[in-house]
Design a protein that fits this description.
Subcellular location: Cytoplasm
Protein name: Isoleucine--tRNA ligase
CATH topology of one domain: Isoleucyl-tRNA Synthetase, domain 2
CATH architecture of one domain: Alpha-Beta Complex
Keywords: Aminoacyl-tRNA synthetase, ATP-binding, Cytoplasm, Ligase, Metal-binding, Nucleotide-binding, Protein biosynthesis, Zinc
CATH class of one domain: Alpha Beta
Strand content: 15-25%
Largest sheet: 10 strands, mixed
Subunit structure: Monomer.
Mean pLDDT: 91
Number of strands: 31
Catalytic activity: tRNA(Ile) + L-isoleucine + ATP = L-isoleucyl-tRNA(Ile) + AMP + diphosphate
Number of helices: 27
Shape: elongated
Structural class: alpha/beta
Helix content: 25-40%
Length: 947
């Protein structure tokens, strides 16, 4: 047949048609989708659709209403949102009520900063007016953060969030304190607590940071007055401390009963040393060389070695005796004494340390008050009245030296507790505080430990961490000496010192708080609360406030309990791993102390955000990544992808290069969705075919969908999302784009629309679209919505109103999966051979080839030649069981497989571009192959050009 002029068959090819753009331009499109969700009332419709389903409640740990959100906030809220959305799509009623922590020191500190800048004295301001300023400040930042969280695509009841400063919340927080008051778990006692002299308040462990601090160290003589052994009298016990300012509060010396101590006679000292030749010192034998070096002792004689237990009954003089400190100092056994550093003796100041106080309580020691709220020694303290503890090292050392008690002085740089807000070093200070007893009548510790065993932890190591903290923690100090918060609204009887325990009084106070807020404690006459028959003059009205960790630990009581739309206990608490000592901890203690169990069934913790080099973010390093900036450049979906593409149980890294990588991952996923939408243009139910009628390749894709469905549902149920998004991306990029789509484009574009193979392909693509958009919807909330609406335009529809598709178990076919895994391995040999041919210029496209594939054994029967040609994307392929000729292409690791590249015989079809001998045999369409000529003659393929 003679060559005929070429015809343009482009209008007969089914190229993808879609309005879904290749470029995401998320920063521009996402706000419009947010507005749309508001307009169609998506949140309300989700709640209505979920009515009657099993509830899933992720209780929101309240962020602090103080400043714009940071990248850690974004990580936390996105992870919560993904879990909530996935649960909703898995068939639960996943109502989410966001909340804020609004009371406490950071906000109060901000208002005080404003006062200081304006030259105002906070203490001269009416507390109710001051509290009003704090409330307004918190309300402003709640509104700012709410908008920022919503811009991240976080779905929730933003119209009705909770906050700890809501009047009802304040009333319920007080009621929770009232529960402890009534059940005997709350008491007032004088005990040393971590105290900030700058903020003038006690601090919780979670409000403490540790930084390097330069401390003055002293070795101090305590002269022995009485001892069981005569040779000890006149000697001096030597102590070492890094807090010289605590010496005025000393009331004992502790020793280790099993430690070996040396009675040392000083026989030589270097010039300028404070050690005196002829004196006798008692130090731990193990630490004697260190002490001798620090004290400048050049020669000494060990008179004898004795066990610490032999010191029982020893009494020393205070090192400042004769200067106003006329107290005896007993030597007492302490199981906390070690020989790791120092002298093997510990000076005991019951007002300045937990172990000191406990030892003092055990042996009836007094607990002197020496330091005031501002960190200055009180007026009655001899020698040091009015001196600040930060500046006390020199005066104390001078006084010790003058008294002959200072043996040596040095400097130590060590990790030391600081306030997380003011960054100032903290002190242990004995103050009257309100405590929840850990081992009192409620048995809070025992209940909490039992509750931990009944709780699921993700990752599991969180259980051990929290259990260790609960097992070792002291009684819970729940009072603070500040103004902004819920007051400990207790009346203490002046005559007995006992708190008034009367449920009617508690209820009256709570009712007033619910009507007017906690300001009522300052504005309402005490007689109103006390009721008839009680004289307000007989009672002290406590002005301390409740610490914020107790407040946030009580949120389960006023957010979940008694709510029709929520449930108690929560299914999940989810925060950063630092909350083992924060919110998880306080919520557990509060709930166990009042309800006997944890307020949660499971606890999930995530890591922290670091920069690309693994460094903590800080303004000084210039490595802070602000979520607002990421959204402006990339869009919120890229941030969401970053969260879910990482292992959130570990610390996560983020920075410019990592964000570029996430944008590239996103591009591949978006292109997958775009191609699916385009390839499904015009799909109708009439095209659908059952899996039984599909080719094996389509059934393999259905198998992969069944595998991924199981993975997504397991992650949804178990909160184990790490790796899931990587699997979805791998599926899109490798299984689909680089394999299945590549193979089936020929059939999709060129087969007749009524051909069984093309119908099977389109049916599978429809399943893919429904599954992928659903599985991606919890993560890429904006992109999944955009893709869904691009295929199914609607005024009020949404991908988020869907449930996960039901994937039939029958789609799972492990035998088929194993077969196609082997086929893909063998295909690598064919594509490798053709790539070499292309690189060396012998072919331009794989369709110009018809290779010979040499296989042995079972491999030879995997596919017929025609199907192999489809899979290899060649115009033909021959399967041979003959030995491969010399020079055939092989791949390392694929034994028994070889490929001989051959050029396809025939002419190139002008429509499908395959090279086939039959091209030119059709008079009406001489440029077409048999399949394409049939398709064009059918009249079913004329269509508009691709957009």
């Amino acid at each position: 047949m003679t060559d005929a002029p070429k015809r343009d068959y482009r209008d007969t090819v089914f190229l993808p048609v879609t309005s879904f753009p290749m470029r995401g331009e998320l920063a521009k499109r996402e706000p419009a989708l947010l507005e749309r969700w508001q307009r169609i009332g998506l949140w309300q419709r989700l709640r209505a659709a979920a009515a009657g389903r099993p509830k899933f409640i992720l209780h929101d740990g309240p962020p602090y209403a103080n400043g714009n959100i940071h990248i850690g906030h974004a990580l936390n809220k996105i992870l919560k949102d993904v879990i909530n959305r996935a649960k909703q799509m898995a068939g639960y009623d996943a109502n989410y009520v966001p909340g804020w922590d609004c009371h406490g020191l950071p906000i109060e500190w901000k208002i005080e900063e404003q006062y200081r800048a304006a030259g105002r004295d906070k203490d001269a301001v009416d507390p109710v007016a001051f509290r009003a300023e704090c409330r307004a400040y918190a309300a402003h930042w709640m509104a700012v953060q709410s908008a920022e969280f919503q811009r991240l695509g976080v779905a929730g009841d933003w119209a009705k969030p909770y906050s700890t400063m809501d009047f009802r919340s304040e009333a319920m927080i007080w009621r929770e304190i009232g529960r402890f008051l009534m059940n005997g778990g709350l008491y007032r006692g004088a005990k040393p607590v971590l105290w900030s002299p700058v903020e003038k308040t006690a601090l919780a462990d979670a409000e403490v940071e540790y930084h390097d601090h330069r401390s003055t160290t002293v070795w101090v003589r305590f002269p022995v007055l009485e001892a069981p052994a005569p040779d000890l009298r006149g000697a001096s016990i030597v102590i070492w401390t890094t807090t010289p300012w605590t010496i005025p509060g000393n009331r004992a010396v502790a020793y280790g009963a099993e430690i070996d101590y040396a009675l040392v006679a000083v026989e030589g000292a270097r010039d300028g040393a404070r050690a005196r030749v002829g004196e006798h010192l008692l130090v731990a034998l193990h630490l004697l060389p260190d002490v001798a070096k620090e004290a400048g002792i050049t020669q000494h004689l060990v008179r004898r070695v004795l066990k610490g237990a032999e010191l029982a009954g020893t009494v020393c003089a205070h090192p400042l005796r004769g200067k106003g400190y006329e107290v005896d100092v007993p030597a007492l056994p302490g199981d906390f004494v070690t020989t790791d550093a120092g002298t093997g003796f510990v000076h005991i100041a019951p007002g300045h340390g937990e172990e000191d106080w406990l030892l003092g309580q055990k042996h009836g020691l007094p607990t002197p008050d020496t330091v005031g709220p501002d960190g200055r020694f009180l007026d009655h303290v001899p020698l040091f009245a009015g001196i600040h503890v930060y500046e006390a090292a020199d005066p104390v050392c001078d006084a010790l030296a003058e008294a002959g008690a200072l043996l040596a002085r040095g400097v130590l740089v060590h990790s030391y507790p600081h306030s997380w807000r003011s960054k100032a070093p903290l002190i242990f200070r004995n103050t009257p505080q309100w405590f929840v007893a850990m081992d009192g009548p409620n048995g809070v510790r025992a209940r909490a430990l039992a509750a931990i065993e009944a709780t699921r932890f993700v990752p599991p190591q969180g259980k051990n961490r929290l259990r260790a903290m609960i097992a070792q923690r002291p009684d819970w100090c729940v009072s603070r000496q500040r103004a902004w918060g819920v007051p400990i609204a207790i009346f203490v009887e002046k005559r007995t010192g006992e708190p008034l325990r009367d449920q009617a009084v508690i209820d009256r106070i709570a009712e007033a708080f619910e009507r007017e807020g906690a300001d009522a404690w300052w504005t309402t006459p005490p007689a109103v609360f006390l009721g008839e028959g009680r004289n307000p003059d007989d009672y002290e009205q406590v002005r301390d406030i409740i610490e914020v960790w107790f407040e946030s630990g009580s949120t389960h009581a006023f957010v979940l309990e008694g709510s029709e739309s929520l449930a108690w206990p929560a299914d999940l608490y989810l925060e950063g791993s630092d909350q083992h000592r924060g919110w998880f901890h306080s919520s557990l203690l509060e709930s166990c102390g009042t309800r006997g169990r944890a307020p949660y069934k499971a606890v999930l913790t995530h890591g922290f955000t670091l920069d690309e080099q693994g460094r903590k973010m800080s303004k000084s390093l210039g490595n802070v990544v602000a979520p607002q900036e990421v959204i402006a450049e990339y869009g919120a979906d890229i941030l969401r992808l970053w969260v879910m593409a990482s292992d959130y149980t570990e610390d996560q890294r983020i920075g410019p290069e990592i964000l570029k990588q996430q944008a590239e991952l996103y591009r591949r996923i978006r292109n997958t969705l775009r191609w699916l939408i385009g390839a499904l243009d015009g799909f109708t139910e009439a095209e659908r075919v059952s899996p039984e009628a599909m080719p094996e390749l389509e059934r393999w894709v259905l198998h992969r969908l069944a595998e991924l469905d199981s993975r997504v549902r397991e992650a949804t149920e178990g909160y184990t999302w790490t790796g899931v998004f990587a699997e979805l991306h791998q599926f899109c990029a490798t299984d689909l784009s680089a394999f299945y789509f590549d193979i089936r484009k020929d059939s999709l574009y060129c087969d007749r629309p009524d051909s069984p193979r093309r119908r099977a392909v389109r049916t599978v693509l429809d399943h893919l679209f429904h599954c992928l958009t659903a599985w991606l919807a919890p993560v890429l909330v904006f992109t999944a919505e955009e893709a869904w609406l691009a295929r199914f335009p609607s005024e009020d529809g949404s991908v988020h109103l869907r449930l996960f598709p039901e994937v039939p178990a029958a789609w799972r076919d492990e035998t088929l999966a194993a077969k196609w895994a082997r086929i893909r391995e063998l295909r690598r040999a064919v594509t490798g051979a053709l790539e070499k041919e292309r690189a060396e210029g012998r072919i331009g496209s794989s369709l110009q080839a018809a290779p010979v594939l040499h296989l042995t054994g079972p491999d030879a029967g995997l596919l017929d030649a025609a199907t192999w040609a489809e899979v290899a994307i060649t115009s033909g392929l021959t399967v041979s069981t003959d030995p491969a000729p010399p020079g055939a292409f092989t791949l390392e690791g694929l034994a028994g497989v070889a490929v001989v590249p051959e050029r396809a015989e025939g002419r190139k079809c002008e429509r499908c571009w395959k090279v086939l001998p039959e091209v030119g045999t059709h008079e009406d369409h001489p440029g077409l192959c048999d399949r394409c000529a049939d398709a064009v003659r059918s009249g079913l393929v004329t269509r508009r050009r691709a957009a």
